[in-house]
Amino acid sequence: MPQSPQHHFKDELASLWTLSWPIMVGQLASTGTAFVDAVMAGHVSAGDLAAVSVGASIWVMMIVTLIGLTLAASPLIAHAVGGQRRAEIPGVAQQALYQGLVWGLIAWGVAWLAQPLLGHLGLEPLVEAKARGFVRAVTWALPGFALFRVLYGYSASLNATKPMMVIALSGLALNVPLNWVLIYGHFGMPALGAVGCGWATAMCTWFTLVLMVVWIKISPVYRDTDPLKHWRGIDWGLQWQLLKLGLPVGAMFFVEVSAFSGVALLMARLGTVSVAAHQVALNMASLTFMIPSALGTAMTVRVGQALGAGDPAYARFVGWTGIRIGLAVASCTALLMIVGNHVVASWYTRDAAVLALAGSLLIFAGVFQLADATQVVAAGVLRGYKVTRQPMVVHVTAFWAIGLPLGYLLAFGGFGWAGWGARGYWLALVVALSFAAIALVLLFRRVSRLRLAPSRAA
């Protein structure tokens, strides 16, 4: 007896939940590190919170770009799993590790070269000094972070996602006492404030990489695909294949995160209160973003496995299912931010001026939850189809051609417009994310139909 559409939906929902909930918890734990940094630094002073906000803008641009660049291995491994070609997996993962190390070292160099930019943002001298110290400390984590993300994608593509959850929670558990020691100065350590956040984050990043390597070596799940043994030389053909997939994704991620982090840098002109309030809203939005982001990662795996098994019809069904689930989850987080905006802001700071502005910015963050969830899930689906260049063009248009120029105009004024300050930037981000969501869903609709047409003709 054929299964009903409702039965298919329930089966796929169960599969997606099994795959994505450990990723979700793990990514929430990873973002929880930034949450802990913001809260603990904010309780030192508004200046320390502003320094973490500005310094983290550079750090976040680096790590999000690295996530994109190292995602190329995930669809390749997922297709190999779906097509029962597991012997290919160690080679793909090893080549991705080589490439990931190079990207991590490049990111480290770029982050060091970017530090002088902090002197041109109009920051208060003390805030600028603390932001520089934060960046100098945290950039030492970048090579380790890149390698960890390659192994993260390898494990997820094998449907083994619980290790990342346990490892991320372990990193968060270590971050809290390290912050307590380094920020406030305990056990004879100097009170480093915002700079202590940077050192704690760097230590925790390398700690999570070591845990991931140990897990792969001892777990039987990875025994037949372990990329950490029988090392082979560089395969330039596979390197080029990874580069073609990864570069557009890295560029796409950089474009999006630069729109958010770039706002924090440009907002320095509006003063410490605006920078601190922006950090509160951005940190909360980043925290809730991890839920649809985890779903997008799961979609890459599920769609890739379906296509690798030669079933484009099911791949299309999986894609639409994921988008619907993402919208449902985003509706809940949007309600939390809009209705509980001032309560959420009070978690971060006791400064009355920061509280008031952050509360209003959280309403904008709540509004764009629906569009943000849709675009990140749709992008994950498209990666499963190995489609990465067109989404990059969509993001460049949405965030650089629409978001940043419109945000600058709405924030600072021009053409007779008085300017809305920080609120203007967040309104522009709502517009940019809505454009990206609509464009990526339409692209998925077109790509999935084209992949379905040959099978229907056959």
Give a verbal description of the structure.
With 458 residues, the chain is mainly alpha-helical. It contains 16 helices and no strands. The two termini are 24 Å apart.
Shape: globular
Number of helices: 16
The succession of helices and strands, N to C, reads: HHHHHHHHHHHHHHHH
Structural class per helix/strand content?
mainly alpha
Distance between the termini: 24 Å
Radius of gyration: 22 Å
The helical percent reads over 70%
SSE topology sketch:
Elements: H1 5-42, H2 46-69, H3 73-82, H4 89-114, H5 125-138, H6 142-157, H7 162-184, H8 194-218, H9 236-266, H10 272-308, H11 312-339, H12 341-346, H13 352-367, H14 369-384, H15 389-412, H16 422-457
Helix pairs in contact: 1-2, 1-7, 1-10, 1-11, 2-4, 2-5, 2-6, 2-8, 2-9, 2-10, 3-4, 3-6, 3-10, 4-6, 5-8, 6-8, 7-8, 9-15, 10-11, 10-13, 10-14, 11-13, 11-14, 11-16, 13-16, 14-16, 15-16
